[in-house]
C-alpha cells in the first residue's frame, strides 16, 4: 500500500483568476492506494457524505482511469467539498502522485498536473489546473495553457473557512463575461506585483497584489460577512485579503508576527456575523 498526502490550495489570489494558486500547509487529503483488478473508492473524513465513490464520478477514479492504473483507493478527506480550498483537486493530485509511484510510471510534475486536471475536468466539467498544480508542485504556481511555473516562497497566509457552502458553479455564474480596459490594466498591475512579492518573500507586495475589481467583488457578495471579515483582518495586520478560489473561504496575507492575530480576527468577525468558521495558518511553500 502507498499513501500520499496532498495539501489544500488557494486559487486565484485575487488578481490571478484561473492562473495563480498556492499550496497551504493544511488541511490535506490523505490517499492510500493498492493495486487491484479494478478501481474501487472509499471516502471518509470531512464532507465524505457528499463525495461520490463511483470511480467514474470521483476525481481520483478518473485519474486512475487516465493512468490505466486500477487500484483500491482510500481517501481520507481533510479538505471538505465546496470550501474554496481545492477539495476535489487535493484528491486528484494525491491520486495522480500515488498511482504514478505505485505503477512506476515516472511522470514529470507537469505531466502529473495535466492528469490530475483531467480528473477535475471529468467531475466538475471544467479543468482548472490552478488548484492541482500547487497541490502537486507546492509553492506558488502560475498556470497557462502552455505550461506551469512554480515558485518557492515564504509568505504567511491565513485561510479562513466559514461553515457555509458556495458551489463552484454558482461562483462561476456570477463572474462577468467582460470587463473594461481600466480593470484589465489594474489586474495586470496587481498580478505582476503579487508575483514579484512571491519571488521576494514580501508580504506587503503579495497583499497589495491581491487587489482585483472584477471577479472578487462579484463573489464576495455570495459570502455572508465578507466585508466584516476583510475589515477585521486588515485591522489585525493583514496586508491583503481576497476570496480563496471560488469561496467561501477567505485568504489573507500578512507578516509572521501578525498571523495569529489575523486568524483570530477573521474567525471572530465571521462569528459576529452569525457564521461559525475556522482558520488555517500557513506559509506558501
Ligand atoms: N479558478 C477557479 C475558480 C478555482 O475560481 O473558479 C475553482 O475551481
Automatic annotation (TrEMBL):
Family: Belongs to the GHMP kinase family. Homoserine kinase subfamily.
Name of this chain's protein: Homoserine kinase
Keyword Nucleus: no
Any one cellular-component term (Gene Ontology): cytoplasm
Domain GHMP kinase C-terminal: 197-271
Enzyme's top EC category: transferase
GO molecular function terms attached to this record: ATP binding; homoserine kinase activity
Domain GHMP kinase N-terminal, residue spans: 59-139
Subcellular location: Cytoplasm
Catalytic activity as recorded in UniProt: L-homoserine + ATP = O-phospho-L-homoserine + ADP + H(+)
Gene transcribed to yield this protein: thrB
Entry keywords, A to Z: Amino-acid biosynthesis, ATP-binding, Cytoplasm, Kinase, Nucleotide-binding, Threonine biosynthesis, Transferase
Primary residence: cytoplasm
One GO BP: threonine biosynthetic process
NCBIfam families: PRK01212.1-4, thrB
Pathway per the UniProt entry: Amino-acid biosynthesis; L-threonine biosynthesis; L-threonine from L-aspartate: step 4/5
Binding, ATP: 80-90
Primary role: Catalyzes the ATP-dependent phosphorylation of L-homoserine to L-homoserine phosphate.
Species of origin: Halarchaeum acidiphilum MH1-52-1
InterPro entries: GHMP_kinase_C_dom (IPR013750), GHMP_kinase_C_sf (IPR036554), GHMP_kinase_N_dom (IPR006204), Homoserine_kinase (IPR000870), Ribosomal_Su5_D2-typ_SF (IPR020568), Ribsml_uS5_D2-typ_fold_subgr (IPR014721)
Amino acid at each position: 500500500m502507498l499513501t500520499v498526502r496532498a495539501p489544500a490550495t488557494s486559487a486565484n489570489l485575487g488578481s490571478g483568476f484561473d492562473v495563480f494558486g498556492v499550496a497551504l500547509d493544511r488541511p490535506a487529503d490523505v490517499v492510500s492506494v493498492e493495486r487491484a483488478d479494478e478501481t474501487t473508492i472509499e471516502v471518509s473524513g470531512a464532507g465524505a457524505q457528499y463525495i461520490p465513490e463511483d470511480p467514474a464520478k470521483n476525481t481520483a477514479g478518473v485519474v486512475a482511469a487516465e493512468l490505466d492504473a486500477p487500484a483500491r483507493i482510500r481517501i481520507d478527506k481533510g479538505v471538505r467539498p465546496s470550501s474554496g480550498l481545492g477539495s476535489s483537486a487535493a484528491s486528484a493530485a494525491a491520486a495522480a502522485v500515488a498511482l504514478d509511484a505505485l505503477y512506476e510510471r515516472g511522470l514529470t510534475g507537469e505531466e502529473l498536473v495535466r492528469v490530475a486536471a483531467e480528473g477535475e475536468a471529468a467531475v466538475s466539467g471544467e479543468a482548472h489546473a490552478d488548484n492541482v498544480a500547487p497541490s502537486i508542485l507546492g509553492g506558488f504556481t502560475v498556470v497557462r495553457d502552455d505550461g506551469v511555473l512554480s515558485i518557492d516562497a515564504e509568505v504567511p497566509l491565513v485561510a479562513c473557512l466559514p461553515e457555509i457552502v458556495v458551489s463552484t458553479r454558482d461562483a462561476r455564474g456570477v463572474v462577468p463575461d467582460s470587463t473594461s480596459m481600466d480593470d484589465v490594466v489594474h489586474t495586470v498591475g496587481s498580478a505582476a506585483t503579487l508575483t514579484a512579492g512571491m519571488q521576494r518573500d514580501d508580504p506587503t507586495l503579495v497583499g497589495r497584489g491581491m487587489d482585483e475589481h472584477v471577479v472578487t467583488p462579484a463573489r464576495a457578495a455570495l459570502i455572508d460577512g465578507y466585508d466584516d471579515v476583510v475589515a477585521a483582518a486588515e485591522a489585525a495586520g493583514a496586508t491583503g485579503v481576497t476570496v480563496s478560489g471560488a469561496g467561501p473561504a477567505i485568504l489573507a496575507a500578512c507578516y509572521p508576527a501578525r498571523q495569529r492575530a489575523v486568524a483570530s480576527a477573521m474567525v471572530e468577525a465571521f462569528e459576529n456575523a452569525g457564521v461559525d468558521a475556522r482558520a488555517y495558518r500557513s506559509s506558501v511553500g
